[in-house]
Amino acid sequence: MTPEVRRFPTLAAACRSLAEYLTAIATADAAANNVFSLVLTGGSTARSLYRELAAPAAIDGMPWPCTHLFWSDERLVPPTDPASNYGMAKALLLDHVPVPSENIHAVATETASAEVSAARYEEELRRYFGNAGGGPPDFPRFDCVLLGMGEDGHVASLFPGSPLLHEKRRWVAACGPAGSPFLPRITLTLPVLNHARRVVLLIGGERKAAVLDDILAASAETASPYPAARIRTPATRIWFVAP
Ligand code: 6PG
Q1: Which residues line ligand 1 (CB under 6 A)?
Q2: CA 42 to ligand 1 center in whole angstroms
Q3: 29: exposed, middle or buried (C-beta count within 10 Å: 0-12, 13-18, 19+)?
Q4: CA of 179 to the centre of ligand 1 (A)
Q5: In what order do the strands lie in the sheet containing 144-148?
Q6: Which of 81, 116, 154, 209 could form a disulfide with 159 if both were Cys (CB 3.0 to 4.6 A apart)?
Q7: pTM for this one?
Q8: pLDDT interval class at 138 (50, 70, 90)
Q9: What phi and psi values does residue 127 have, to the nearest 5 degrees?
Q10: What is the mean pLDDT of residues 9-21?
Q11: Which atom of ligand 1 is nearest the CA belonging to 208?
């Protein structure tokens, strides 16, 4: 099953539409369940989305008091470091919207190692979801996972060729120094990403076009070397694409 692909003339237009989409599903989930769990991504493309969500006209539309925020991945740097995914979201979004601080579930990075941070984050998720998130082995089910995609087709901190692409049990894992910036990282695993109720991928930039074409042409996850091709949740999967 291929994802639904929504193409836009500019990144600004894609982010505006994605912000409206997130607001609509959050409003529906909050009305039905009084809660909306959203996984945020790092990366520069998401910056315009966070600015869009933090715009004065958008703030009142989101049910921020019952929204819980998580991260797809994090770099092992202090929260004040310019490379911190949490720090980026804090500066552009969290500092501007009425999300209660207890609803912000960031990855603790001031630890001895990425492994320790990963174990702590899995504990944090298990505290939030309990051990009965549904699906073997009790994977958590986020209401929405937001992802970016790197030029090498990576998503979260799941890079091409990584042994983590075969992870079957853990919810969160550490990965050695990788990506740009080249840092140790902590990432949600593929089974967790694929267990979400909805996965939305925000892709911006001409340099990702060839990778995107390869992924969309792949008939099965194994037919493409790119980790983004392994985002195959049977639930809602929408890709917001801009040049
Ligand atoms: C990270 C990410 C990563 C990112 C993509 C896209 O922390 O590095 O979460 O998966 O979303 O690399 O990044 P750009 O938007 O900067 O291309």
Answers
A1: 41-45, 72-73, 85, 148-150, 154-156, 179
A2: 5
A3: buried
A4: 9
A5: 4-7, 236-242, 198-204, 144-148, 36-40, 67-71
A6: 154
A7: 0.96
A8: confident
A9: -65, -40
A10: 98
A11: 17
CA 123 to ligand 1 center in whole angstroms: 24
E-assigned strands of the chain?
A: 4-7, 36-40, 67-71, 73-75, 144-148, 172-178, 183-188, 198-204, 236-242
Tell which one of 11, 40, 45, 88 to mutate to probe ligand 1, the residue whose CB is within 8 A of the most ligand atoms.
45
Peptide bond into 137 cis (omega under 30): yes
Index of the ligand 1 atom closest to the CA of residue 157: 10
pLDDT digit string (tens) for 44-71?
A: 999 999 999 999 999 999 999 999 999 9
Q: Give the model's confidence band at 223: pLDDT under 50 very low, under 70 low, under 90 confident, else very high.
A: confident
